[in-house]
Design goal:
By secondary structure, the chain is an alpha+beta fold. It has 3 domains: 3-70 and 121-141, Ribosomal Protein S5, domain 2 (2-Layer Sandwich); 73-115, no CATH class; 144-282, no CATH class. The chain has helices spanning 42-53, 77-94, 102-107, 122-168, 172-187, 197-210, 214-230, 238-259, 262-282; strands at 3-11, 14-23, 28-34, 56-66, 73-75, 113-115. The chain has a 4-stranded mixed sheet. Strand 1 and strand 2 (14-23) form a beta hairpin. Helix 4 packs antiparallel against helix 7 (214-230) and helix 4 runs antiparallel to helix 9. The longest helix is centred in the middle third of the chain and has 47 residues, at 122-168. The chain starts with a strand and ends with a helix. The relative contact order is 0.12.
Protein backbone atom coordinates (compact mmCIF):
# COMPACT_ATOMS: atom_id res chain seq x y z
CA UNK A 1 0.00 0.00 0.00
CA UNK A 2 2.98 2.34 0.30
CA UNK A 3 3.27 4.83 -2.56
CA UNK A 4 3.58 8.44 -3.71
CA UNK A 5 2.07 10.24 -6.68
CA UNK A 6 2.20 13.82 -7.93
CA UNK A 7 0.70 15.81 -10.82
CA UNK A 8 0.71 19.51 -11.78
CA UNK A 9 -1.11 21.74 -14.24
CA UNK A 10 -1.41 25.46 -15.04
CA UNK A 11 -4.87 26.98 -15.39
CA UNK A 12 -5.85 30.66 -15.84
CA UNK A 13 -3.07 32.41 -13.95
CA UNK A 14 -2.65 29.70 -11.33
CA UNK A 15 -0.64 26.54 -10.86
CA UNK A 16 -2.42 23.53 -9.37
CA UNK A 17 -0.36 20.85 -7.59
CA UNK A 18 -1.74 17.49 -6.49
CA UNK A 19 0.14 15.13 -4.16
CA UNK A 20 -0.98 11.74 -2.85
CA UNK A 21 0.87 9.70 -0.26
CA UNK A 22 -0.21 6.23 0.88
CA UNK A 23 0.92 4.09 3.82
CA UNK A 24 -0.28 0.69 5.03
CA UNK A 25 -3.56 0.46 6.94
CA UNK A 26 -6.22 -2.22 7.52
CA UNK A 27 -8.94 0.06 6.11
CA UNK A 28 -9.18 3.11 3.88
CA UNK A 29 -8.10 6.06 6.04
CA UNK A 30 -8.28 9.18 3.87
CA UNK A 31 -7.17 12.67 4.88
CA UNK A 32 -7.60 15.59 2.43
CA UNK A 33 -6.12 19.09 2.41
CA UNK A 34 -7.73 21.14 -0.35
CA UNK A 35 -7.63 24.82 -1.40
CA UNK A 36 -10.78 26.70 -0.44
CA UNK A 37 -12.01 27.02 -4.03
CA UNK A 38 -12.15 23.21 -4.41
CA UNK A 39 -13.73 22.38 -1.02
CA UNK A 40 -17.13 21.73 -2.61
CA UNK A 41 -15.52 18.84 -4.53
CA UNK A 42 -14.22 17.09 -1.40
CA UNK A 43 -16.78 14.26 -1.50
CA UNK A 44 -16.18 13.66 -5.19
CA UNK A 45 -12.42 13.47 -4.58
CA UNK A 46 -12.93 11.04 -1.69
CA UNK A 47 -15.11 8.74 -3.81
CA UNK A 48 -12.56 8.80 -6.63
CA UNK A 49 -9.66 7.93 -4.32
CA UNK A 50 -11.57 5.28 -2.34
CA UNK A 51 -12.63 3.48 -5.53
CA UNK A 52 -9.13 3.40 -6.99
CA UNK A 53 -6.86 3.03 -3.95
CA UNK A 54 -9.02 0.53 -1.98
CA UNK A 55 -6.96 0.49 1.25
CA UNK A 56 -4.27 2.46 3.02
CA UNK A 57 -3.64 5.58 5.09
CA UNK A 58 -3.90 8.14 2.30
CA UNK A 59 -2.97 11.83 2.48
CA UNK A 60 -4.32 13.91 -0.42
CA UNK A 61 -3.14 17.50 -0.96
CA UNK A 62 -4.44 19.92 -3.60
CA UNK A 63 -3.10 23.47 -3.50
CA UNK A 64 -2.85 26.41 -5.89
CA UNK A 65 -0.23 29.10 -6.55
CA UNK A 66 -0.88 32.38 -8.34
CA UNK A 67 1.17 32.88 -11.53
CA UNK A 68 0.08 36.42 -12.36
CA UNK A 69 -0.62 39.76 -10.75
CA UNK A 70 -4.28 38.96 -10.23
CA UNK A 71 -5.04 37.71 -6.77
CA UNK A 72 -8.17 36.82 -4.86
CA UNK A 73 -6.87 39.05 -2.04
CA UNK A 74 -7.49 42.74 -2.77
CA UNK A 75 -6.78 46.02 -0.95
CA UNK A 76 -9.87 48.19 -0.76
CA UNK A 77 -8.41 51.51 -1.93
CA UNK A 78 -11.55 53.49 -1.05
CA UNK A 79 -11.48 52.29 2.55
CA UNK A 80 -7.73 53.07 2.81
CA UNK A 81 -8.28 56.65 1.58
CA UNK A 82 -11.20 57.11 3.96
CA UNK A 83 -9.14 55.92 6.92
CA UNK A 84 -6.24 58.18 5.90
CA UNK A 85 -8.43 61.32 5.59
CA UNK A 86 -9.97 60.64 8.97
CA UNK A 87 -6.52 60.25 10.52
CA UNK A 88 -5.33 63.45 8.85
CA UNK A 89 -8.27 65.32 10.38
CA UNK A 90 -7.67 63.83 13.83
CA UNK A 91 -3.92 64.55 13.69
CA UNK A 92 -4.62 68.20 12.73
CA UNK A 93 -7.04 68.58 15.62
CA UNK A 94 -4.56 67.03 18.05
CA UNK A 95 -1.54 68.69 16.45
CA UNK A 96 0.11 65.31 15.82
CA UNK A 97 2.15 64.64 12.70
CA UNK A 98 1.52 61.57 10.57
CA UNK A 99 4.59 59.40 9.88
CA UNK A 100 5.36 56.86 7.16
CA UNK A 101 4.24 53.91 9.27
CA UNK A 102 0.64 55.12 9.21
CA UNK A 103 -0.03 53.11 6.03
CA UNK A 104 1.02 49.88 7.73
CA UNK A 105 -1.37 50.66 10.56
CA UNK A 106 -4.22 51.35 8.14
CA UNK A 107 -3.66 47.98 6.40
CA UNK A 108 -4.44 46.20 9.68
CA UNK A 109 -7.79 47.94 10.11
CA UNK A 110 -11.12 46.18 9.35
CA UNK A 111 -12.27 45.78 5.73
CA UNK A 112 -9.04 47.15 4.23
CA UNK A 113 -8.04 43.75 2.86
CA UNK A 114 -10.77 41.66 1.30
CA UNK A 115 -10.78 38.17 -0.14
CA UNK A 116 -12.83 37.77 -3.26
CA UNK A 117 -14.24 34.27 -3.60
CA UNK A 118 -13.12 32.58 -6.81
CA UNK A 119 -15.75 30.72 -8.76
CA UNK A 120 -14.96 27.12 -9.70
CA UNK A 121 -14.85 26.75 -13.47
CA UNK A 122 -16.30 23.44 -14.74
CA UNK A 123 -13.73 23.22 -17.52
CA UNK A 124 -10.90 23.78 -15.06
CA UNK A 125 -12.31 21.19 -12.67
CA UNK A 126 -12.46 18.64 -15.49
CA UNK A 127 -8.76 19.26 -16.16
CA UNK A 128 -7.93 18.96 -12.44
CA UNK A 129 -9.91 15.72 -12.17
CA UNK A 130 -7.76 14.34 -14.97
CA UNK A 131 -4.64 15.35 -13.05
CA UNK A 132 -5.97 13.63 -9.92
CA UNK A 133 -6.28 10.43 -11.98
CA UNK A 134 -2.73 10.99 -13.22
CA UNK A 135 -1.46 11.32 -9.64
CA UNK A 136 -3.31 8.13 -8.66
CA UNK A 137 -1.73 6.29 -11.61
CA UNK A 138 1.68 7.56 -10.51
CA UNK A 139 1.03 6.28 -6.98
CA UNK A 140 -0.18 2.93 -8.35
CA UNK A 141 3.00 2.61 -10.42
CA UNK A 142 5.02 3.21 -7.26
CA UNK A 143 2.93 0.59 -5.46
CA UNK A 144 3.47 -1.93 -8.25
CA UNK A 145 7.24 -1.51 -8.04
CA UNK A 146 7.18 -1.97 -4.27
CA UNK A 147 4.69 -4.82 -4.63
CA UNK A 148 6.91 -6.78 -7.03
CA UNK A 149 9.69 -6.83 -4.42
CA UNK A 150 7.21 -7.65 -1.66
CA UNK A 151 5.68 -10.50 -3.68
CA UNK A 152 9.04 -12.21 -4.14
CA UNK A 153 9.74 -11.93 -0.42
CA UNK A 154 6.35 -13.49 0.45
CA UNK A 155 6.86 -16.33 -2.02
CA UNK A 156 10.35 -16.98 -0.62
CA UNK A 157 9.03 -17.25 2.95
CA UNK A 158 6.13 -19.56 2.00
CA UNK A 159 8.51 -21.77 0.04
CA UNK A 160 10.79 -21.82 3.09
CA UNK A 161 7.92 -23.26 5.13
CA UNK A 162 7.22 -25.97 2.54
CA UNK A 163 10.93 -26.81 2.40
CA UNK A 164 11.09 -27.12 6.19
CA UNK A 165 7.95 -29.27 6.08
CA UNK A 166 9.76 -31.68 3.74
CA UNK A 167 12.62 -31.90 6.23
CA UNK A 168 10.19 -32.99 8.95
CA UNK A 169 9.78 -36.39 7.23
CA UNK A 170 13.32 -37.55 7.98
CA UNK A 171 12.64 -37.52 11.73
CA UNK A 172 9.22 -39.20 11.82
CA UNK A 173 10.36 -42.84 12.06
CA UNK A 174 12.88 -42.02 14.76
CA UNK A 175 10.23 -39.97 16.57
CA UNK A 176 7.72 -42.85 16.66
CA UNK A 177 10.44 -45.26 17.86
CA UNK A 178 11.38 -42.88 20.68
CA UNK A 179 7.75 -42.53 21.74
CA UNK A 180 7.38 -46.31 21.94
CA UNK A 181 10.62 -46.64 23.91
CA UNK A 182 9.46 -43.97 26.32
CA UNK A 183 6.19 -45.81 26.92
CA UNK A 184 7.88 -49.17 27.51
CA UNK A 185 10.43 -47.51 29.76
CA UNK A 186 7.56 -46.25 31.88
CA UNK A 187 6.14 -49.77 32.12
CA UNK A 188 9.31 -51.34 33.53
CA UNK A 189 8.29 -50.61 37.08
CA UNK A 190 4.90 -52.23 36.59
CA UNK A 191 4.48 -56.00 37.09
CA UNK A 192 3.56 -57.78 33.87
CA UNK A 193 0.61 -59.41 35.71
CA UNK A 194 -0.86 -55.95 36.15
CA UNK A 195 -0.78 -55.21 32.43
CA UNK A 196 -3.60 -56.20 30.09
CA UNK A 197 -1.74 -56.79 26.85
CA UNK A 198 -4.79 -56.22 24.63
CA UNK A 199 -5.63 -52.97 26.40
CA UNK A 200 -2.00 -51.91 26.25
CA UNK A 201 -1.92 -52.50 22.50
CA UNK A 202 -5.13 -50.51 22.02
CA UNK A 203 -3.82 -47.61 24.10
CA UNK A 204 -0.51 -47.68 22.24
CA UNK A 205 -2.28 -47.49 18.87
CA UNK A 206 -4.55 -44.69 20.13
CA UNK A 207 -1.61 -42.70 21.49
CA UNK A 208 0.46 -43.09 18.32
CA UNK A 209 -2.52 -42.04 16.18
CA UNK A 210 -3.02 -39.01 18.40
CA UNK A 211 0.63 -38.05 17.93
CA UNK A 212 0.51 -38.63 14.15
CA UNK A 213 1.22 -35.43 12.16
CA UNK A 214 0.37 -36.56 8.63
CA UNK A 215 -2.94 -34.66 8.55
CA UNK A 216 -1.25 -31.47 9.73
CA UNK A 217 1.47 -31.87 7.10
CA UNK A 218 -1.09 -32.34 4.31
CA UNK A 219 -3.19 -29.37 5.40
CA UNK A 220 -0.14 -27.16 5.87
CA UNK A 221 1.14 -28.00 2.39
CA UNK A 222 -2.31 -27.32 0.90
CA UNK A 223 -2.52 -23.94 2.66
CA UNK A 224 0.95 -22.97 1.39
CA UNK A 225 0.04 -23.96 -2.18
CA UNK A 226 -3.23 -22.02 -1.93
CA UNK A 227 -1.27 -18.98 -0.73
CA UNK A 228 1.03 -19.18 -3.77
CA UNK A 229 -1.97 -19.53 -6.11
CA UNK A 230 -3.82 -16.60 -4.54
CA UNK A 231 -0.85 -14.23 -4.65
CA UNK A 232 -0.86 -14.51 -8.46
CA UNK A 233 -4.42 -13.15 -8.80
CA UNK A 234 -4.82 -9.69 -10.37
CA UNK A 235 -7.42 -8.54 -7.81
CA UNK A 236 -6.59 -7.16 -4.32
CA UNK A 237 -5.82 -10.23 -2.18
CA UNK A 238 -4.22 -8.81 0.97
CA UNK A 239 -7.07 -9.75 3.33
CA UNK A 240 -7.47 -13.19 1.75
CA UNK A 241 -3.75 -13.88 2.11
CA UNK A 242 -4.04 -12.81 5.74
CA UNK A 243 -6.73 -15.44 6.36
CA UNK A 244 -4.62 -18.13 4.65
CA UNK A 245 -1.63 -17.12 6.79
CA UNK A 246 -3.79 -17.65 9.90
CA UNK A 247 -4.58 -21.19 8.74
CA UNK A 248 -0.89 -21.84 8.06
CA UNK A 249 -0.14 -20.67 11.59
CA UNK A 250 -2.78 -22.99 13.05
CA UNK A 251 -1.23 -26.05 11.40
CA UNK A 252 2.32 -25.03 12.32
CA UNK A 253 1.28 -24.64 15.97
CA UNK A 254 -0.42 -28.06 16.00
CA UNK A 255 2.63 -29.62 14.39
CA UNK A 256 4.80 -28.10 17.10
CA UNK A 257 2.55 -29.31 19.93
CA UNK A 258 2.64 -32.88 18.57
CA UNK A 259 6.30 -32.97 17.55
CA UNK A 260 7.79 -34.36 20.78
CA UNK A 261 11.16 -34.35 19.01
CA UNK A 262 13.97 -31.82 19.39
CA UNK A 263 14.94 -31.56 15.72
CA UNK A 264 11.32 -31.32 14.60
CA UNK A 265 10.75 -28.56 17.14
CA UNK A 266 13.67 -26.65 15.64
CA UNK A 267 12.07 -26.91 12.19
CA UNK A 268 8.74 -25.69 13.60
CA UNK A 269 10.46 -22.67 15.16
CA UNK A 270 11.98 -21.80 11.76
CA UNK A 271 8.52 -22.14 10.19
CA UNK A 272 7.09 -19.74 12.78
CA UNK A 273 9.89 -17.29 12.06
CA UNK A 274 9.08 -17.36 8.32
CA UNK A 275 5.37 -17.01 9.08
CA UNK A 276 5.95 -13.92 11.24
CA UNK A 277 7.79 -12.29 8.32
CA UNK A 278 4.86 -13.16 6.06
CA UNK A 279 2.32 -11.61 8.47
CA UNK A 280 4.41 -8.46 8.82
CA UNK A 281 4.68 -8.03 5.04
CA UNK A 282 0.97 -8.70 4.49
CA UNK A 283 0.16 -5.50 6.38
CA UNK A 284 1.35 -3.65 3.27
CA UNK A 285 -0.62 -5.69 0.71
CA UNK A 286 -3.93 -4.49 -0.74
Amino acid sequence: MTGYGKAECELSQKKVTIEIKSLNSKQMDLNTRISQIFREKDLEIRRELSDKLVRGKVDFILYTESLGEDSATKINAGIVKSYYKQMEKISAELNISLNDSILQTILTLPEVVKNEREELNDQEWKAILGKISEAVESLDKFRMQEGAILKQDLIFNVQSITSLLTDVGQYEEERVTRIKEKIFEGLKDISIEQVNENRLEQEMIFYLEKMDVNEEKVRLLNHCNYFLETIELAEPVGKKLGFIAQEIGREVNTLGSKANHTEMQKLVIQMKDALERIKEQLLNVL
